[in-house]
Design a protein that fits this description.
- The protein is of the alpha/beta class and 405 residues long.
- The protein folds into 3 domains: 182 residues, FAD/NAD(P)-binding domain (3-Layer(bba) Sandwich); 80 residues, no CATH class; 86 residues, D-Amino Acid Oxidase, Chain A, domain 2 (2-Layer Sandwich), CATH 3.30.9.
- It contains 13 helices and 23 strands.
- The chain is globular and about 60 Å long.
- It binds flavin-adenine dinucleotide.
Length: 405
Protein backbone atom coordinates (compact mmCIF):
# COMPACT_ATOMS: atom_id res chain seq x y z
CA UNK A 1 0.00 0.00 0.00
CA UNK A 2 1.30 3.50 -0.80
CA UNK A 3 0.17 6.65 1.02
CA UNK A 4 0.94 10.24 0.03
CA UNK A 5 0.59 13.08 2.54
CA UNK A 6 1.92 16.63 3.02
CA UNK A 7 3.72 15.69 6.24
CA UNK A 8 4.60 12.39 7.95
CA UNK A 9 5.20 12.57 11.67
CA UNK A 10 6.79 9.72 13.59
CA UNK A 11 5.66 9.77 17.24
CA UNK A 12 2.42 11.09 18.75
CA UNK A 13 3.83 12.41 22.03
CA UNK A 14 3.46 16.15 22.76
CA UNK A 15 6.02 17.11 20.08
CA UNK A 16 4.46 15.01 17.31
CA UNK A 17 0.77 15.60 18.10
CA UNK A 18 1.17 19.34 18.38
CA UNK A 19 3.33 19.68 15.25
CA UNK A 20 0.65 17.69 13.42
CA UNK A 21 -2.22 19.75 14.83
CA UNK A 22 -0.59 23.04 13.83
CA UNK A 23 0.19 21.82 10.30
CA UNK A 24 -3.39 20.56 9.92
CA UNK A 25 -4.67 23.96 11.10
CA UNK A 26 -2.85 25.43 8.09
CA UNK A 27 -4.58 22.99 5.73
CA UNK A 28 -1.85 20.32 5.35
CA UNK A 29 -2.74 16.64 5.11
CA UNK A 30 -0.85 15.05 7.99
CA UNK A 31 -0.24 11.43 9.00
CA UNK A 32 1.10 10.60 12.47
CA UNK A 33 2.28 7.09 13.35
CA UNK A 34 3.00 5.87 16.87
CA UNK A 35 4.03 2.41 17.97
CA UNK A 36 1.93 2.81 21.15
CA UNK A 37 -1.85 2.94 21.60
CA UNK A 38 -3.23 5.91 23.53
CA UNK A 39 -3.82 6.47 26.37
CA UNK A 40 -0.38 5.14 27.30
CA UNK A 41 1.98 5.64 30.22
CA UNK A 42 5.26 7.47 29.75
CA UNK A 43 7.95 7.72 32.46
CA UNK A 44 7.85 11.41 33.37
CA UNK A 45 7.55 13.53 36.54
CA UNK A 46 4.44 15.07 34.92
CA UNK A 47 5.17 18.66 35.90
CA UNK A 48 4.28 21.38 33.41
CA UNK A 49 5.73 24.86 33.63
CA UNK A 50 3.54 27.97 33.30
CA UNK A 51 4.98 28.47 29.80
CA UNK A 52 3.77 24.99 28.82
CA UNK A 53 0.33 25.86 30.25
CA UNK A 54 0.21 28.91 28.00
CA UNK A 55 0.76 26.74 24.91
CA UNK A 56 -1.85 24.22 26.07
CA UNK A 57 -4.30 27.12 26.43
CA UNK A 58 -3.52 28.20 22.88
CA UNK A 59 -4.27 24.65 21.74
CA UNK A 60 -7.61 24.70 23.58
CA UNK A 61 -6.99 21.58 25.68
CA UNK A 62 -6.80 23.07 29.20
CA UNK A 63 -10.51 22.57 29.97
CA UNK A 64 -10.26 18.88 29.16
CA UNK A 65 -7.13 18.45 31.30
CA UNK A 66 -8.72 20.17 34.30
CA UNK A 67 -11.88 18.05 33.90
CA UNK A 68 -9.68 14.94 33.93
CA UNK A 69 -8.22 15.87 37.34
CA UNK A 70 -5.10 17.91 36.53
CA UNK A 71 -3.78 19.91 39.49
CA UNK A 72 -2.73 23.54 39.44
CA UNK A 73 0.78 24.12 40.83
CA UNK A 74 1.72 27.35 42.57
CA UNK A 75 5.47 26.73 42.32
CA UNK A 76 8.27 24.38 43.20
CA UNK A 77 10.26 23.50 46.32
CA UNK A 78 13.87 22.36 45.95
CA UNK A 79 15.57 20.56 48.85
CA UNK A 80 19.36 20.18 48.97
CA UNK A 81 21.15 16.97 49.99
CA UNK A 82 21.99 18.42 53.41
CA UNK A 83 18.59 19.91 54.25
CA UNK A 84 18.65 23.37 52.69
CA UNK A 85 15.46 24.36 50.94
CA UNK A 86 14.05 27.00 48.60
CA UNK A 87 10.54 27.62 47.35
CA UNK A 88 9.82 29.62 44.23
CA UNK A 89 6.30 30.77 43.44
CA UNK A 90 5.23 31.47 39.86
CA UNK A 91 2.92 34.29 40.95
CA UNK A 92 5.84 36.12 42.56
CA UNK A 93 8.40 36.06 39.78
CA UNK A 94 7.55 39.65 38.84
CA UNK A 95 8.13 38.65 35.23
CA UNK A 96 7.39 41.20 32.53
CA UNK A 97 6.74 38.31 30.10
CA UNK A 98 3.13 37.30 29.45
CA UNK A 99 2.55 34.17 31.54
CA UNK A 100 0.16 32.26 33.75
CA UNK A 101 1.05 32.35 37.44
CA UNK A 102 0.59 28.59 37.70
CA UNK A 103 2.05 25.36 36.46
CA UNK A 104 0.20 22.09 36.06
CA UNK A 105 0.53 18.49 37.25
CA UNK A 106 -1.21 15.99 34.98
CA UNK A 107 -0.59 12.35 34.12
CA UNK A 108 0.88 11.60 30.70
CA UNK A 109 -1.99 9.17 30.08
CA UNK A 110 -4.33 12.17 30.19
CA UNK A 111 -2.07 14.82 28.63
CA UNK A 112 -0.82 12.82 25.65
CA UNK A 113 -4.20 11.29 24.82
CA UNK A 114 -5.75 14.79 24.93
CA UNK A 115 -3.13 16.10 22.52
CA UNK A 116 -3.69 13.15 20.16
CA UNK A 117 -7.43 13.91 20.29
CA UNK A 118 -6.72 17.58 19.56
CA UNK A 119 -4.71 16.57 16.48
CA UNK A 120 -7.44 14.18 15.29
CA UNK A 121 -10.14 16.81 15.77
CA UNK A 122 -8.16 19.07 13.41
CA UNK A 123 -8.20 16.42 10.70
CA UNK A 124 -4.87 14.67 11.37
CA UNK A 125 -4.81 10.91 10.66
CA UNK A 126 -3.22 9.10 13.62
CA UNK A 127 -2.20 5.45 13.17
CA UNK A 128 -1.57 3.82 16.55
CA UNK A 129 0.37 0.56 17.07
CA UNK A 130 2.30 1.51 13.95
CA UNK A 131 6.04 1.99 13.87
CA UNK A 132 8.47 3.39 11.39
CA UNK A 133 10.69 0.70 9.88
CA UNK A 134 13.02 2.73 7.69
CA UNK A 135 13.27 6.07 5.94
CA UNK A 136 12.88 6.32 2.18
CA UNK A 137 15.40 8.54 0.40
CA UNK A 138 15.74 9.90 -3.09
CA UNK A 139 19.06 11.51 -4.14
CA UNK A 140 20.01 11.80 -0.46
CA UNK A 141 16.82 13.60 0.60
CA UNK A 142 14.29 11.95 2.91
CA UNK A 143 11.07 11.48 0.94
CA UNK A 144 9.03 9.45 3.43
CA UNK A 145 9.21 6.18 5.32
CA UNK A 146 8.16 2.56 5.43
CA UNK A 147 5.74 1.93 8.29
CA UNK A 148 4.49 -1.34 9.82
CA UNK A 149 1.27 -1.96 11.76
CA UNK A 150 1.09 -4.33 14.73
CA UNK A 151 -0.66 -6.79 12.43
CA UNK A 152 2.45 -6.90 10.25
CA UNK A 153 1.10 -4.91 7.30
CA UNK A 154 3.60 -2.48 5.80
CA UNK A 155 3.09 0.65 3.73
CA UNK A 156 5.31 3.22 2.08
CA UNK A 157 4.44 6.80 2.96
CA UNK A 158 5.62 9.56 0.61
CA UNK A 159 5.84 13.07 2.08
CA UNK A 160 7.73 16.31 1.29
CA UNK A 161 8.70 16.42 4.98
CA UNK A 162 9.17 13.68 7.60
CA UNK A 163 9.28 14.80 11.23
CA UNK A 164 11.10 12.69 13.81
CA UNK A 165 9.13 13.15 17.06
CA UNK A 166 9.88 9.69 18.41
CA UNK A 167 11.37 10.82 21.71
CA UNK A 168 14.52 9.92 23.64
CA UNK A 169 16.53 7.25 21.78
CA UNK A 170 14.83 8.32 18.53
CA UNK A 171 15.49 6.01 15.62
CA UNK A 172 14.69 8.78 13.14
CA UNK A 173 17.40 10.97 14.70
CA UNK A 174 19.93 8.15 14.33
CA UNK A 175 18.93 7.70 10.69
CA UNK A 176 19.43 11.45 10.14
CA UNK A 177 23.01 11.32 11.43
CA UNK A 178 25.28 10.70 14.45
CA UNK A 179 24.20 11.61 17.98
CA UNK A 180 26.22 13.58 20.54
CA UNK A 181 26.21 11.95 24.00
CA UNK A 182 26.69 13.94 27.22
CA UNK A 183 29.20 12.49 29.73
CA UNK A 184 26.44 12.67 32.38
CA UNK A 185 24.40 9.45 32.02
CA UNK A 186 21.40 9.13 34.31
CA UNK A 187 18.47 6.70 34.55
CA UNK A 188 15.00 7.32 35.93
CA UNK A 189 12.42 5.25 37.83
CA UNK A 190 8.86 6.57 38.03
CA UNK A 191 5.64 5.42 39.71
CA UNK A 192 2.23 6.65 40.87
CA UNK A 193 1.28 6.37 44.54
CA UNK A 194 -1.57 7.14 46.89
CA UNK A 195 -1.06 8.08 50.52
CA UNK A 196 2.04 10.26 50.01
CA UNK A 197 2.06 12.57 53.03
CA UNK A 198 2.79 16.29 53.23
CA UNK A 199 2.12 17.19 49.58
CA UNK A 200 0.87 20.70 48.92
CA UNK A 201 0.15 22.50 45.67
CA UNK A 202 3.83 22.59 44.70
CA UNK A 203 6.09 20.10 42.99
CA UNK A 204 9.01 19.00 45.17
CA UNK A 205 12.55 18.20 44.04
CA UNK A 206 14.93 16.57 46.49
CA UNK A 207 18.62 16.46 45.63
CA UNK A 208 20.67 13.64 47.12
CA UNK A 209 24.33 12.71 47.22
CA UNK A 210 23.76 10.50 44.15
CA UNK A 211 20.83 11.66 42.08
CA UNK A 212 17.54 13.30 42.91
CA UNK A 213 13.87 12.53 43.47
CA UNK A 214 10.62 14.35 42.81
CA UNK A 215 7.10 14.36 44.21
CA UNK A 216 4.26 15.86 42.22
CA UNK A 217 0.52 15.91 43.05
CA UNK A 218 -0.86 14.76 39.68
CA UNK A 219 -4.47 14.19 40.73
CA UNK A 220 -6.76 13.96 43.74
CA UNK A 221 -4.81 11.89 46.28
CA UNK A 222 -2.31 10.71 43.65
CA UNK A 223 1.38 11.56 43.55
CA UNK A 224 3.94 11.02 40.84
CA UNK A 225 7.15 9.83 42.48
CA UNK A 226 10.28 9.89 40.38
CA UNK A 227 13.87 8.96 41.08
CA UNK A 228 16.84 9.85 38.87
CA UNK A 229 20.26 8.32 39.55
CA UNK A 230 23.61 7.86 37.79
CA UNK A 231 24.09 4.71 35.74
CA UNK A 232 26.31 3.02 38.35
CA UNK A 233 23.58 3.39 41.00
CA UNK A 234 20.80 2.41 38.56
CA UNK A 235 22.56 -0.88 37.82
CA UNK A 236 21.66 -2.04 41.37
CA UNK A 237 18.00 -2.12 40.29
CA UNK A 238 18.64 -5.28 38.27
CA UNK A 239 17.70 -7.51 41.22
CA UNK A 240 14.35 -5.97 42.14
CA UNK A 241 13.26 -2.57 40.82
CA UNK A 242 10.60 -2.01 43.51
CA UNK A 243 12.97 -2.71 46.41
CA UNK A 244 15.67 -0.60 44.80
CA UNK A 245 13.19 2.26 44.26
CA UNK A 246 11.98 2.37 47.88
CA UNK A 247 15.42 1.75 49.42
CA UNK A 248 16.90 4.58 47.39
CA UNK A 249 14.00 6.96 48.09
CA UNK A 250 14.47 6.34 51.82
CA UNK A 251 17.94 7.86 51.57
CA UNK A 252 16.36 11.25 50.84
CA UNK A 253 15.82 12.95 54.19
CA UNK A 254 12.81 14.93 52.92
CA UNK A 255 11.07 11.87 51.43
CA UNK A 256 11.79 9.14 54.00
CA UNK A 257 8.57 7.52 55.28
CA UNK A 258 6.37 9.51 52.92
CA UNK A 259 6.08 7.02 50.04
CA UNK A 260 4.93 3.46 50.81
CA UNK A 261 5.02 0.43 48.54
CA UNK A 262 1.46 -0.35 49.68
CA UNK A 263 0.27 2.86 47.96
CA UNK A 264 1.63 1.84 44.56
CA UNK A 265 -0.84 2.21 41.68
CA UNK A 266 1.18 0.29 39.10
CA UNK A 267 4.63 -0.84 38.06
CA UNK A 268 7.71 1.35 38.39
CA UNK A 269 8.63 2.51 34.88
CA UNK A 270 12.30 2.79 33.96
CA UNK A 271 14.00 4.93 31.31
CA UNK A 272 17.51 6.04 30.38
CA UNK A 273 20.17 6.95 29.77
CA UNK A 274 19.60 10.66 29.11
CA UNK A 275 21.97 13.22 27.71
CA UNK A 276 21.76 12.97 23.97
CA UNK A 277 21.60 15.55 21.23
CA UNK A 278 21.17 15.11 17.48
CA UNK A 279 24.03 16.55 15.47
CA UNK A 280 21.67 17.00 12.52
CA UNK A 281 18.19 18.12 13.66
CA UNK A 282 17.45 19.22 10.08
CA UNK A 283 18.17 17.30 6.84
CA UNK A 284 16.84 17.50 3.29
CA UNK A 285 13.22 16.39 3.66
CA UNK A 286 13.14 16.09 7.44
CA UNK A 287 13.52 17.59 10.87
CA UNK A 288 13.52 16.52 14.53
CA UNK A 289 11.38 17.92 17.30
CA UNK A 290 11.09 17.31 21.07
CA UNK A 291 13.32 14.75 22.80
CA UNK A 292 14.30 13.33 19.41
CA UNK A 293 16.26 16.54 18.83
CA UNK A 294 17.73 16.97 22.32
CA UNK A 295 17.22 15.73 25.85
CA UNK A 296 19.59 16.51 28.70
CA UNK A 297 18.08 15.82 32.10
CA UNK A 298 14.59 16.08 33.59
CA UNK A 299 15.69 18.13 36.64
CA UNK A 300 14.22 21.42 35.44
CA UNK A 301 10.96 19.75 34.34
CA UNK A 302 11.05 21.52 31.02
CA UNK A 303 10.92 18.73 28.43
CA UNK A 304 7.21 18.99 27.71
CA UNK A 305 7.45 22.75 27.26
CA UNK A 306 10.39 22.23 24.89
CA UNK A 307 8.36 19.65 22.96
CA UNK A 308 5.35 21.99 22.70
CA UNK A 309 7.38 25.10 21.86
CA UNK A 310 9.55 23.06 19.49
CA UNK A 311 6.37 21.91 17.74
CA UNK A 312 5.33 25.52 17.24
CA UNK A 313 8.73 26.37 15.79
CA UNK A 314 8.89 23.24 13.62
CA UNK A 315 5.42 23.76 12.15
CA UNK A 316 6.19 27.42 11.39
CA UNK A 317 9.43 26.38 9.63
CA UNK A 318 7.68 23.67 7.61
CA UNK A 319 4.89 26.02 6.56
CA UNK A 320 7.48 28.63 5.55
CA UNK A 321 9.48 26.08 3.54
CA UNK A 322 6.39 24.48 1.99
CA UNK A 323 6.21 27.35 -0.48
CA UNK A 324 9.48 26.13 -2.07
CA UNK A 325 10.44 22.98 -4.04
CA UNK A 326 9.74 19.43 -2.77
CA UNK A 327 11.07 17.65 -0.75
CA UNK A 328 11.78 20.53 1.62
CA UNK A 329 15.51 21.22 1.62
CA UNK A 330 17.62 21.51 4.76
CA UNK A 331 18.42 25.07 3.69
CA UNK A 332 14.76 26.02 3.49
CA UNK A 333 14.20 24.51 6.97
CA UNK A 334 17.31 26.05 8.54
CA UNK A 335 15.31 28.89 10.12
CA UNK A 336 14.08 26.20 12.53
CA UNK A 337 17.63 25.74 13.87
CA UNK A 338 18.02 29.46 14.49
CA UNK A 339 14.58 29.70 16.10
CA UNK A 340 15.39 26.74 18.39
CA UNK A 341 18.66 28.32 19.44
CA UNK A 342 16.93 31.61 20.25
CA UNK A 343 14.13 29.88 22.16
CA UNK A 344 16.24 27.34 24.07
CA UNK A 345 19.80 28.62 24.59
CA UNK A 346 18.98 29.85 28.10
CA UNK A 347 17.32 26.56 29.02
CA UNK A 348 20.33 24.63 27.70
CA UNK A 349 22.69 26.74 29.86
CA UNK A 350 20.57 26.63 33.03
CA UNK A 351 19.91 22.88 32.66
CA UNK A 352 23.58 22.15 32.36
CA UNK A 353 24.48 24.47 35.23
CA UNK A 354 22.01 22.67 37.52
CA UNK A 355 22.70 19.19 36.13
CA UNK A 356 26.45 19.40 36.62
CA UNK A 357 26.08 21.46 39.86
CA UNK A 358 24.27 18.48 41.37
CA UNK A 359 27.41 16.40 40.96
CA UNK A 360 28.77 18.50 43.85
CA UNK A 361 26.11 17.98 46.54
CA UNK A 362 27.79 20.27 49.14
CA UNK A 363 28.05 23.15 46.70
CA UNK A 364 24.55 22.53 45.40
CA UNK A 365 23.16 22.46 48.94
CA UNK A 366 24.94 25.71 49.69
CA UNK A 367 23.49 27.36 46.59
CA UNK A 368 19.98 26.19 47.56
CA UNK A 369 20.53 27.58 51.06
CA UNK A 370 21.74 30.97 49.73
CA UNK A 371 18.85 31.26 47.29
CA UNK A 372 16.34 30.00 49.86
CA UNK A 373 17.30 32.83 52.23
CA UNK A 374 16.29 35.36 49.63
CA UNK A 375 12.70 34.91 48.40
CA UNK A 376 13.02 37.04 45.24
CA UNK A 377 16.07 34.97 44.14
CA UNK A 378 14.07 31.76 44.65
CA UNK A 379 11.08 33.05 42.68
CA UNK A 380 13.45 34.17 39.91
CA UNK A 381 15.15 30.77 39.65
CA UNK A 382 11.86 28.86 39.49
CA UNK A 383 10.58 31.46 37.02
CA UNK A 384 13.61 30.88 34.78
CA UNK A 385 13.24 27.08 34.86
CA UNK A 386 9.52 27.56 34.16
CA UNK A 387 10.29 29.82 31.17
CA UNK A 388 8.43 32.81 32.56
CA UNK A 389 11.56 34.80 33.44
CA UNK A 390 14.35 35.37 30.87
CA UNK A 391 17.43 33.20 31.62
CA UNK A 392 19.61 36.30 31.89
CA UNK A 393 18.01 36.95 35.30
CA UNK A 394 20.02 33.98 36.62
CA UNK A 395 22.87 33.78 34.12
CA UNK A 396 24.58 36.98 35.28
CA UNK A 397 27.55 37.61 37.57
CA UNK A 398 25.50 39.21 40.36
CA UNK A 399 23.02 36.32 40.71
CA UNK A 400 25.68 33.64 40.30
CA UNK A 401 27.97 35.26 42.89
CA UNK A 402 25.16 35.68 45.43
CA UNK A 403 24.24 32.05 44.85
CA UNK A 404 27.53 30.66 46.13
CA UNK A 405 29.14 33.32 48.36
C1 LIG B 1 12.15 10.55 34.22
C2 LIG B 1 11.69 11.71 33.41
C3 LIG B 1 10.99 12.71 34.03
C4 LIG B 1 10.55 13.80 33.27
N1 LIG B 1 9.85 14.77 33.90
C5 LIG B 1 9.40 15.81 33.20
C6 LIG B 1 8.58 16.79 33.82
O1 LIG B 1 8.22 16.70 34.98
N2 LIG B 1 8.18 17.84 33.06
C7 LIG B 1 8.54 17.98 31.76
O2 LIG B 1 8.16 18.97 31.13
N3 LIG B 1 9.30 17.05 31.14
C8 LIG B 1 9.71 15.97 31.84
N4 LIG B 1 10.43 15.00 31.21
C9 LIG B 1 10.73 15.15 29.79
C10 LIG B 1 9.51 14.79 28.97
O3 LIG B 1 9.00 13.53 29.32
C11 LIG B 1 9.88 14.79 27.49
O4 LIG B 1 10.68 15.91 27.21
C12 LIG B 1 8.66 14.78 26.59
O5 LIG B 1 7.93 13.60 26.76
C13 LIG B 1 9.09 14.92 25.14
O6 LIG B 1 7.99 14.72 24.31
P1 LIG B 1 8.20 14.08 22.87
O7 LIG B 1 6.88 14.17 22.20
O8 LIG B 1 9.42 14.62 22.23
O9 LIG B 1 8.56 12.54 23.16
P2 LIG B 1 7.69 11.39 23.83
O10 LIG B 1 6.73 11.95 24.78
O11 LIG B 1 8.67 10.39 24.33
O12 LIG B 1 6.88 10.75 22.61
C14 LIG B 1 7.52 10.00 21.62
C15 LIG B 1 6.50 9.07 20.99
O13 LIG B 1 7.14 8.40 19.89
C16 LIG B 1 6.70 7.06 19.86
N5 LIG B 1 7.73 6.27 19.16
C17 LIG B 1 8.98 5.99 19.56
N6 LIG B 1 9.62 5.28 18.63
C18 LIG B 1 8.77 5.08 17.61
C19 LIG B 1 8.83 4.41 16.36
N7 LIG B 1 9.95 3.77 15.98
N8 LIG B 1 7.77 4.42 15.54
C20 LIG B 1 6.61 5.06 15.94
N9 LIG B 1 6.48 5.70 17.12
C21 LIG B 1 7.55 5.72 17.94
C22 LIG B 1 6.52 6.68 21.30
O14 LIG B 1 5.60 5.61 21.46
C23 LIG B 1 6.00 7.98 21.93
O15 LIG B 1 4.59 8.01 22.00
C24 LIG B 1 10.86 13.89 31.91
C25 LIG B 1 11.56 12.86 31.29
C26 LIG B 1 11.95 11.78 32.02
C27 LIG B 1 12.68 10.68 31.33
Amino acid sequence: MDITVDALIVGAGPAGSVTAALLADAGLQVLVVDRAAFPRDKPCAEYLSPAAVLILERLGVMGKLMDAGATTLSGMTVVGAYGSRLTGLFAKTGSPLPHRPAGLAVTRRVLDASLVDAARSRGVTVMERTRVVELVRHRGAVTGAVIATAGGRTATVAAPVTVGADGLNSVVARWFGPMRREPLRRWAFVGHFTGVTGLGDRAELHAGTAGYAGLNPVGPGIANVSLVVPRQVASRARGDVTDFFHDTLDRFEGIRNRVHASGSLGPILTVGPFGVRARRPVVDGGLLVGDAAEFFDPFTGDGIHSALRGAELASAAILGAARGPMPLSATSLSGYLRARRRAFWGKWMVERMIGYGMLLPRLFDRAVERIGRNDPMAHTLIGVTGHVVPPGAVLNPVYLTRMVL
